[in-house]
Structure formats: structure tokens, C-alpha cells
Write a structure and sequence with these properties.
The structure holds two protein chains of two kinds. Chain A is built from eleven helices and eight strands. Chain A is of the alpha/beta class. Chain A folds into two domains: 119 residues, 3-Layer(aba) Sandwich (Rossmann fold); 126 residues, 3-Layer(aba) Sandwich (Rossmann fold). In chain A, the strands form two sheets. Chain A has a four-stranded parallel sheet. A four-stranded parallel sheet of chain A has the order 6-5-7-8, sandwiched between helices. In chain A, strand 7, helix 10 and strand 8 form a beta-alpha-beta unit. In chain A, helix 3 packs across helix 11, helix 7 packs across helix 8 and helix 9 packs across helix 10. Chain A starts with 9 loop residues before the first helix and ends with a helix. Chain B has two domains: 126 residues, Fumarate Reductase Iron-sulfur Protein, Chain B, domain 2 (Orthogonal Bundle), CATH 1.10.1060; 184 residues. Chain B is 61% helix and 0% strand. In chain B, helix 13 packs across helix 17. The radius of gyration of chain B is 27 Å and the shape is elongated. Chains A and B meet through helix 2, helix 3, helix 4, helix 5 and helix 6 of A and helix 9, helix 12, helix 17 and helix 18 of B.
Amino acid sequence: MEQTIKIPTMAEMAAKGESPDILFWVGCAGSFDERAQKITRDICKILNHVGMNFAILGTEESCTGDPAKRAGNEFLFQMQAMTNIQVLDGYDIKKIVTGCPHCFNTIKNEYPGLGGNYEVIHHSQLIQQLIDEGKLKAEGGESFKGKKITFHDPCYLGRANGVYEAPRKALEILDAELVEMKRCKSNGLCCGAGGAQMFKEPEKGNKDINIERIDEALALKPNIVASSCPFCMTMLSDGVKNFNQEKEVSVLDIAEITVKANGL
Amino acid sequence: MVLQVIFLIIAAASIALFTKNIRKIIRNINLGRDIDRSDRPLDRLITMLKVAFGQSKMGKRPIAAILHLFVYLGFVIINLEVLEIILDGLLGTHRIFAAPLGGLYNVLIASFEILAALVLLAVVVFYARRNIINLKRFKGVEMTNWPKTDANIILIVEVFLMSAFLLMNAADYKLQLAGASNYIQAGTFPISSYLLPILPDSQSALIAIERFCWWFHIIGIFAFLNYLPYSKHFHIVLAFPNTYYSNLEPKGELSNMASVSNEVKAMLDPSFVPEPVAEGTRFGAKDVSDLTWKNLMDAYTCTECGRCTSVCPANMTGKLLSPRKIMMDTRDRLVEVGNNIDKHGKDHQDGKSLLDDYISREEIWACTSCNACTDACPVNIDPLAIIVELRRFSVMEEAQAPTSLNNMFSNIENNGAPWKYSPADRANWTKM
């Protein structure tokens, strides 16, 4: 798959006097982290597959400021937020889909107070909408029949914003066996990356949080641990590697599963 | 008549003392910074009715929920009986509601008795959970001597109060059966009637028992009322306002600091004229007076049940952080600051602060901001808000973040991403 996917940037669209129906906010992990880049490309494949008119900001995109804010650096957060709002408003953006629950939470909940008002959804919600509208199915690709899948709720999608059903919708159409961990939905256990923990060593303790979490997931003997957050992906994949289970258990994003199921 | 005067003095003194302590707590809560929670009154009312009156968040732990429901209903409903006891005490009457209520009175007394028995059962199980079964939730570094004693005092007082109530009814009933004068035929006694065999037959002894239990019960209630302001049990009062003033926004949303917006706007737009900010306000919180009044009300509302800590990913993996400790420390420090004001006047500085003297840096940096604690709290307490304020102080006033976080900050500042990648490469994923 060594190919360039053509994704228009806002600058290119604006130069042609066009405007997209939706802006895809990729996020830092989705832009730079190798594992997350694959998910980003899969999200684009889904958008192309359903013929959605979308664009990205490209090099004009910058960190939402989420990790700075959670770490207590409100200055840096607001600098980022206000600069981003200027860019978004400059292109008259109305609707945004994000590839990351942290970006989703920040733009949706924290930007309005600083003057940035947009309709923001997370990619799992977009997938749910497309399924509900009949535009997206699970056919023509890999079969998940008989596969055991468990879903790990990202905190910033679940508890933080009450989105529990959208990502599950993408799994329900698969004809796979869905199993829930005891700590799921509002009782979900964090992967350990939130609150800027992703960017620091954990404080002293007797266990890493991602190990505690993956322990619970592996006890269900799943084929796939699904999630929909690039940070959760990293933490869960590391956890699976820690137990030397990476051959038996794949850690996949909802978008990757959708792409596989549709052979995109 | 003498007894009525004595009763009046006891009642008036206990209510006066309670009022004084409540005013002190209100003053302490108002040491916090302002935050507007006056919007959406209907949503707030509904939240209070659901969460506090309806106990809606207790159901996640069914055993504790049912036992707590017994005690809660007992508290709310048996208070009707306390009203009668107070009127009897002031007017020198006996079972004043019996005549006007007629048959309904029998139903009420019977339901009070059943509730009293259920409260006794629940309290005994609660005591066993804390002291014999030793549930993990009631342990932890913050569960030192006083919090444990406080919990047991509450349970033991409730055993005494309920026992006195039932014994009083039993003696009364036996006197009614014996046709004693002054003991009108009133009430049905589904529980205390079982106690008749253990009571003496002498009318004078029965009257002594009935009177002793009556006085013991009501003086016990007045004493307990005045214990509340010092105890975790104060949640029976504050659960209602605290849920009314809940955060109604999505849990993921952290407040945007207006003081910072001013400076950032001025940096981005030189023509911007910032609104004046009160002098001496620091960014974030070092001490309790830097927190909002709602954070401080949260602290007084906490009943130290530990649901927050038991679901905290940092705590369960052995880190120092315990959300319950955050709340207990905040209350302890606030009480200390309040006592300082009482003793030394408003501007006294004792050289201590919430951060470092009570809550350590290691604790605040262990938080993943996952909101498990805020979701678990049955009375909508928000420990995360306090942790974030302490981090803000640490970072913006002291530049005391862990090194790796400082690196993350400078990456965002310079490259627009938390990692050291060039912003020019941001769209490189399209080319692979």
C-alpha cells in the first residue's frame, strides 16, 4: 500500500473557492505516530468510500492544547486554542470530525468558551451515522464471524462525553462475538494515558495502569481488543506485548475494523 | 412544667450551637473563589431530586445501596416522629399526634418501627463491613484513626438511638395494655411488641424506662445534630445543596481560566484592552482559599465512602493518589484555616498550605483525569477539579512540572505537537 492518498487541504479548497462538508481534524498522534497514522488513513478511506466531501488543515493544523491544559498549563492551552480558532474561523469551518477523543473533547467543550463554536463529532460517531444511514455496511471484506471482540472505552469519549454506543455500533454489524469487560462503559478503566500521563513516566506504584487494563481484557480471551483513541491504542498494544500475546490478540481501532470489514 | 422548661432549654441550646457551627461552615465555604452555579435552576433541581433524594448513583453497589436506603429512609421518615417528640416535650403532652391522626397514626408508628428495625440491621452490617470483614474500600492511607473512629461513632450512636426508640415504644405499649393512666391507646407496635417479655411488670418501673428512653432518644438526637458539623456524617445535610450545585457540563470539560484569556488575548492582539483582574489572585490553587466555594462545599459534603478511590486507576496500581484523600485533606485544611481566623483574625498566615503540607506533588501528578472518581461519587463531588487547580499553580506560578511535561510544553510551543516533530511534516501520513 505504498501510495499517496489524495486528501485536499483547506488551503487548496479555499483557493478553488470550494468548501468541504466536514473538516477532518487529524490530531498530533494521528499525524505523527506511526500506528495512529494508519488509523488516520483508514478514516480517510471510509470518508472516500462513502463519497464524503472533506478536507484536512494539513500543516495549518496544530495541537488543540489538550495535554497542556490537563497538565495545568492553561496559558499554552489558550494560546493553542485561540490560534486554532483563528484558523478554523478563517476557513469558516462549521463541522469537524476528529480522529482522537482528546481533540474531540477539547474542541467540542472547551473551544466554545474561547469563541470557537463548531459541530464536533468523533470518528466513531461518524461511522455510526453512516451505518444508520445505510451508507456503510460490513461487506466485501474480511469476515469477523466467530471472532471475539472486546471494546475498551476511551475516558474522553465515554465518561467525559457520554459516547458509549457509537463505537459499539461499528462492532455490532460484524457478526462477531462481542464481549464486555466487567469495567466497561461508565465503569470503564482508563488505559493510563490521560491527563498528560502519555507524556511522562508514571508515578511510583506497584503496577502500570495499562497492564491492569489489558490483564482484564486478556482474561476474556479475545481475538481483538478494540478501541477508538490513539493513546489507548499505544497503551493497550504495549500491554499486549508485555504479555507476549501480540500474535494472538490484535489491538484495533474502530476505523481499522470498519476498513477491514469492507475491504477498503 | 419544670420538665418542659428543661426541654426548652436543651432544645434551644442545641439548635443555637448547631446554627453557630453551620454559620462557621458557611463562612469557611465562602473563603473560596466565586463560581457561577446559578444557571439552569430546573436542571439543578432535577439533578438534586435524582441524585440526592433518589439516591440514583448508589445502585452501582447494590448491597451498600439497599442498606444505605434503609438508613436514609429511616432518617427522613423517623424525623416525623421526632417532630411529635419535640412538640410533646414543649407542651408536656404525650403522643400529641395520636388523636388528630386517628387510624393513620397507627400506620405511621408501625412504619417507624419497621424502619427502625431495618436501620438497626443496616447499621450492624455496616459496622461489620468496616471492622470485621475489613472491606478494602474502608482502608487506605487517609483512613487514619479519626476517620475510622468517626465512622464507628456514627454507627454506634444510631444503634443507641434506634434501640432507645424501640424500647420506649415497648414500655409505652406495655403500659397501654396495663391501662396505665396518661398512656392512651395509640399506635401499633409490630417490632417493639416482641420486647414486652424482657420488660418488668411494675408500672412504675415501666414508666421509668419509658421516660428514660424518651429523654435519652431526644437528647441523643440533639447531641448527634451537634456532632454533624465535625463529622463526615455532615453529608446528610450537604448532599442536597451539593448536588443542586453540581457541574452540569460534560465531565471532560475543564474550566477556561478567564484571567489567562485576558493575557493571551492581549498577546495575540495588541489592541485588546484586558478587563481588570482582582489583585493578589494567583493562577491555580496553592491553598484552600484559591479553590472555588464549590470545591470547598464538596470537601464538607464528602462522607469518606471511598467509591472514588476504589475506582481510581492510579490508586489501584499502587500510586500515592487517592481522590478521597484529596477531599479529606481539603476539608482538614479548610477547618484549620477557619480555626486560625477564629483565633488570630482574618489575615493570619500560618505558613502552611494545602499543596505540600497536605497534598503532595506526587499525588497530583499521578492523576490520569479519567473522571472515574467524579462518576463514582454518589453526591457529585469533583476531586479532579481540585487536582487540576493544584497542577495549574504548580505549573504556572512555580514552573514546577515534571521534566518530561516541560519538554511536552516546549514541543507544543515550538512545533505545535507534544512530540519533537516538525510542523512541516504534519501531513506526511498522506504520502505513505
